[in-house]
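We treat protein structure as text, and this decision shapes the records that our systems exchange. Such a record has a labelled line for the sequence and another for the backbone structure tokens. The record that follows is passed on verbatim for readers who wish to inspect the format:
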Amino acid sequence: MSPYRMPYPVPGVVWASLPLPALLVDAGGTIIEVNPAAETFLNTSDRVLRGQPAFDRLAIDAPMDEALARARANQSPLNINDVDVTTGERPPVQCTIHLAPMHDNPDVVMLILSPRELADRMGRSMGAKTAARSAIGMAEMLAHEIKNPLAGISGAAQLLSMNLTPEDQELTDLIVEETRRIVKLLEQVEQFGNLRPPDRKSVNIHDALDRARRSALVGFAAHMTIVEDYDPSLPSTFADNDQLMQVFLNLIRNAAEACATGGTIRLHTFYDLALRVRRKDGVSAALPLQIEIIDDGPGIKPEIAASVFEPFVSGRENGTGLGLALVSKIISDHEGWITVDSVPGRTVFRVSLPMAPRDRKKEAR
């Protein structure tokens, strides 16, 4: 067992608040301490990990002995970029590794893991937020300038059809059908102009998911198998219940339409403290509630993968490209994040949400 113990040079509150997995490793490569984020990453408690060889618990695709020796010899921080890290219980995660010797004991090094997936998610989500907001001004203009004339066109076509032969009525029916389709499209666009803040209350995520699942199975996802993979201990989130259900319904619809010939959609929920964001009031906030909608379809086309949350970007021939943009806007209004990772055979949309404030949780009961 290593002789070193926290609080060591790192103040306990700072150590516990670090959003990235961090370990203190002694000269023999033994774990002295791990912070809560590392406990989550390694799926093991600090009490179990302390005193164990660090690289028995972490498989890192890099010459770590050499890197640690250099950090100790130079007494300066060292970064190792884009290496695969795994615990043996999870798929490899590409990380940047930060090594920092502790100044009052040169043998002890702090090892911080910065998963690249986290940085990528934040970067993509920030772009999605900006794209969704940019559509708001356009939405009101389109809705007001186009919907009213369309109603006149549709009404005129219906009047004309009363005195036409069946062959000519096919043309007026086509006009009516197409105007209705455009009105439906504009109604989706119009939702971007709704600047009313969501009516947020304490909401059980699994209730909203179940409502969306049941609605999908009797309609557009009747050809799919939907599997529930829930963490039953997940606490409530702070959200507008109807808007949250709309998010899940749109994401399930997107997955079902991607798998036109059938397939499986997995609804996966879990708790992860790794993601923290800074709110508008400047306070750092955790987004620990994770909801993933996973399908086994062909995946998103590479040429649009980086812009799927932007308005009018769609991978389907007749798609409007508004469903995911609206989802992005709703999640942004809830101070959450949404990201997507897609390869052929596996597309994962992940929604990250905050927990309900403590004094509001009783509202969900």
